[in-house]
Write a structure and sequence with these properties.
The structure is a homodimer. Chain A is mostly helical. Chain A contains 24 helices and 8 strands. Chain A has 2 domains: 410 residues, no CATH class; 157 residues, Transcription Regulator spoIIAA (2-Layer Sandwich). The longest helix of chain A has 30 residues. Chains A, B: It holds the Pfam family STAS.
Chain lengths: 639, 639
């Protein structure tokens, strides 16, 4: 191991034209999963079939569908329907929309998804966070109570733009945009949103009639405690009882996944029980507010309600993009989670197209933003769903409800809807995840806190923006201040490792061996210059102190981890070499990657940096080849 | 070399508390140059002296100042004064300010810089680009001709905020913010700004009286050619003659740096000659517009003109930040360039404080934004300046002008000022730099083009913003799609290198050896998962085709270049291990860096990822240690 006799040269990277390089880069950026792999070397007819199956996954699993699978899907479909109906009504109210829109949104979108979607577990419908954001953003300009029709138009238009945006991300393969929402951001954001949503439920849970229009923690609490005279004890009693019941069944559902049906059925059971109670005791005359009459019938068309111009267009597009990206993140994350559990693949970009088209279709059939809901999908999974047919079963159940059962909800008290929402969003507060983030990465935890407090104290969209901004800033900071290391030899080997990490590693007299662990580009060349000149000065200071005869002769730069370089990076190497030459020190480059080597060679002024006598394949070879020159020259310098 | 017998273990990183790590990180981020190095182990009195010298570099070089140095400084000071006076008047007009403000700005700021600045070559005063931006941004809300007093107030207030912002960047050591303006951005931006500035000079060069208020290429040219009736042949004749003269002397100055005084003196000579011509021929009565009467006297105080409230505060702060950052970039770049030529150090953060304080003081003494100008500093350098005393000499000369010589400018024609500006900004168009960027990095060239066309066709500040946005997007893209490589063994060695780059490298049956060249974090974990699963599938497909008995047993991940990891990265390794285990493949980690290893160990669920039997120091050792296990097991699998 120790002595290295043979020197291996750094090879010229294979020649590729600019076009080939661009093609390779574009492919890695937009098609990292190579979705058209299976199309290669297939006859045309087969390709057409594969293409149809690609866009309509139902063609893939449909022909093999069996009665056995159907039985499972019916059970899980009915289970999620029993959740979807009360949640649909509740979430629509959270978005300041008529309750029936929540049911409409649980009918058409699941059918569209069943045809286009590739996840087998996703339960599609309205979700709490997207409802909250849609309602709160649109309320900035239009009051849902003063002008409900305009508000509804804006909601459908936002849904249209959300769908358009989602589908475009998928079509243009820009799905990586949702990756910018880091896990820490999401955990903090979800918890904050859960608090905000729960606070809004104080209106129905306490029976307050004059509730604030604001969303923040402080204004809501102060408004609630300034109106204690409006609190209704009947409502509070009923709310507490059902909330305890719902939370208890939820707890059972989490502890024993086999008893999923208890937590899944509890909301519907609560609705039925409470409706009966109100009806029996005429409680609606005694301070308990009820939903009231709902119209019957299936989704009316709403394409004539979409607004593509006018005063609120900017807000509508912004709302569409924010709700679109948030609901997409939830849908994709849910799809991936369950796909990993069952060991199948979901294609992120394809899912985006499916969810996007689902929302575009939804926006013209009186539906607002929908996606795959985490809680309902978990129930769906636990109930044993096999394919997207469970979504069809759910949609049919909702259809029956819409056609025949709507009068039954007339006496359903609003307090129950509040309790259902609170129970659903409690699950969004993920304390174990927050603790594990705290333990692993303190900076990520700060991002989490920013998202959480931003959402609870400032506003939903600004809290999210702040957290995303900080996450990206951290990533940029990592490039601005890249990790650099001084390497030392591990005795008895040709291996060189970080001196700070490996205490046994030793320095080689006359050599300063450095490693830069990032692309060298415009954001970090200034830092790298300062950092390296400080190392050289430290070496010289130490040399003076110890009066050793080992003056610095070589700066060896291990470039293995420099994955890319730009024009500033090229100038950096040129400047570094000039600076070192003035001090009589030679710059030695080790193992530059193909692309980096090529760029250094292409720039005229640096062509001579990559001379073959100062270019090595490993640090060990560089040191052993060059230390012989030191042994001869150092004494003559000091004669 | 070949066979590796001894296996070296990956050491535990040394234990450091969160506080120690945070301290180290903060130091690398904010004090990479370790500016207080020299303060260590010094007695208190010495420290105080060093501290005073740190903040007032004049105390450092002042005591050693000699008559010999003074002689050089007087020559260079007079030379730059002869440039500064005509340029000061011209740039003030470019910023829509009274010409005398340009002279005021060449008097106080150089004196302040001489005390605080650490560059010996910087010639301080107003510069073209900052003048252009200041004028064009403020003109969005206030017309300089309708309300000149308000416009002046806003200009001084913007200067105050520019200085405050610059000084804050220095004090809070956030100087790296200017690094986000990459070289490509600057080259494109400067060239675009030069075009815009030159177009504005068509007003004085053609003698047009009704000139457009807009800045873009299209509106200016269309306005110029719609008003051909206003063109004045006398003005054009004079302009062309002097422009040719100025460009010719500039050319000589560039070709022969020793003849710097020709190009340096030419503007003043042109002013004198043209003034005499106008005076002699009474040309101001024949269509040549002149500056007119200027008031005499030194800078009046202007602190009472600063506006910290009112309708335009937002614009003033925005203008301050944009001009502040642009002028700071120019000043720092100029300082560093000449420091490198003369082999001394300028401390970026200290320079920012100096320039910032200079502008804050300037804003209360009737000066607008100033910085170190590239062209004048080059003249200063060529004229042999030794210290900042040349700035003092220049300021004194300007003072004499302000006190006694102002009436002489009464007949100076505006066309000369236009010719001086055009000559100065021509140097900002750096075609060789653009060509070299094109050759080295095509993407950087696109950034350059965006900056150039953005500035010429949209607006100065938006063009800049677009170019900065694209540069940052490129950096983010590099992390979103990090470089990954499949490694192969270079025959006869223990070295593993990129298979695409080294054609001689060969794969090892049963092993997939991968290297990730970036921090693993939330923006790239999804991509990495997809990329690695594609490699595994490719391996399996190939294996099936060739019917080899070498099914995949180990995925070896060379982690040398993974400089950091966050919570998403930790989950990535956990998921990857799970996915591989389901396929019966073991994940082997090679050479994780200290910080990464620590985080993987700290997360409970991944503790067992870093088992000692799947953790190696080099790829070579991992392969040789593990291939023995393959030889025994592969046959039994196939029995």
């Amino acid at each position: 191991m120790g002595g290295v006799e043979v020197i291996h040269r750094v090879e010229e990277p294979p020649k590729r034209s600019t076009w080939q390089k661009l093609k390779g880069r574009l492919k890695e950026t937009f098609f990292p999963d190579d979705p058209f792999r299976q199309f290669k070397n297939q006859p045309l007819k087969h390709r057409l079939i594969l293409g149809a199956q690609y866009f309509f996954p139902i063609l893939q699993w449909g022909p093999e569908y069996s009665f056995r699978l159907f039985k499972s899907d019916v059970i899980s479909g009915l289970t999620i329907a029993s959740l979807a109906i009360p949640q649909g009504i509740s979430y629509a109210k959270l978005a300041n929309l008529p309750p029936i829109v929540g049911l409409y949104s649980s009918f058409v979108p699941p059918l569209v998804y069943a045809v286009l979607g590739s996840s087998r577990d996703l339960a599609v419908g309205p979700v709490s966070i997207a409802s909250l954001i849609l309602g709160s953003m649109l309320r900035q300009e239009v009051s849902p109570s003063d002008d409900p029709n305009l508000f509804l138009q804006l909601a459908f238009s936002s849904t249209f733009f959300a769908g358009l945006f989602q589908a475009s991300l998928g079509i243009f393969r820009l799905g990586f945009i949702i990756d910018f929402l880091s896990r820490a951001t999401l955990v903090g954001f979800m918890a904050g949103a859960a608090i905000i949503v729960s606070l809004q439920q104080l209106k129905s849970l306490l029976g307050i009639t004059h509730f604030t229009q604001q969303m923040g923690l402080v204004p809501v609490l102060s408004s609630v405690f300034h109106r204690t005279n409006e609190w209704s004890w009947q409502t509070i009693l009923m709310g507490v009882c059902f909330l305890v019941f719902l939370l208890f069944t939820r707890h059972i559902g989490i502890r024993r996944p086999k008893l999923f049906w208890i937590s899944a059925g509890a909301p519907l059971l609560s609705v039925i029980l409470s409706t009966l109670l109100v009806f029996a005791f005429k409680a609606d005359k005694h301070g308990i507010s009820v939903i009231g009459k709902l119209q019957e019938g299936l989704n009316p068309p709403s394409w004539n309600m979409l607004r593509f111009h006018g005063a609120h267009l900017g807000l509508v597009i912004k709302t569409g993009i924010v709700t679109g990206i948030i609901s997409l993140t939830e849908g994709i994350a849910v799809g991936r989670t369950f796909a990993a559990l069952k060991n199948y693949q979901v294609d992120g970009n394809k899912e985006m197209m499916a969810i996007g088209i689902m929302n575009v279709v939804g926006s013209s059939t009186s539906c607002y933003v929908t996606t795959g809901a985490f809680s309902r999908s978990a129930v769906n999974h636990n109930a044993g769903c096999k394919t997207a047919v469970s979504n069809i079963v759910m949609a049919v159940t909702v259809m029956v409800t819409l056609l025949f059962l709507m009068p039954l909800f007339q006496y359903t008290p609003n307090v129950i809807l509040g309790a259902i929402i609170v129970t659903a969003v409690v699950g969004l507060i993920d304390i174990p995840a927050a603790y594990s983030i705290w333990k692993v990465d303190k900076f990520d935890f700060i991002v989490l806190l920013c998202a959480f407090f931003g959402v609870t104290f400032i506003s939903v969209q600004n809290g999210l923006a702040i957290a995303v901004g900080i996450s990206i800033f951290k990533v940029l900071l990592q490039i601005t201040r890249p990790k650099t290391m001084m390497l030392g030899n591990i005795p008895g080997t040709g291996i060189y490792r970080d001196l700070d990490h490996y205490k046994e590693a030793i320095t080689t007299p006359g050599f300063l061996i450095l490693s830069i662990e990032a692309p060298v580009n415009f954001v970090n060349t200034t830092y790298l210059k300062e950092r390296i000149s400080r190392w050289i000065e430290e070496y010289e200071a130490e040399e003076e102190q110890t009066k050793k005869q080992s003056e610095l002769r070589f700066v060896v730069l291990d470039m293995s981890a420099i994955s890319a370089i730009d024009t500033s990076g090229v100038s950096f190497f040129k400047d570094l070499r000039m600076t070192l030459e003035k001090k009589g020190v030679e710059l030695v480059l080790v193992n530059p990657l193909g692309e980096v080597l090529e760029k250094l060679q292409r720039a005229e002024e640096t062509k001579d940096i990559v001379k073959s006598d100062s270019l090595f394949l490993t640090v060990g070879e560089a040191v052993s080849a060059l230390s012989s020159t030191i042994k001869f020259q150092v004494p003559t310098d000091h004669v």
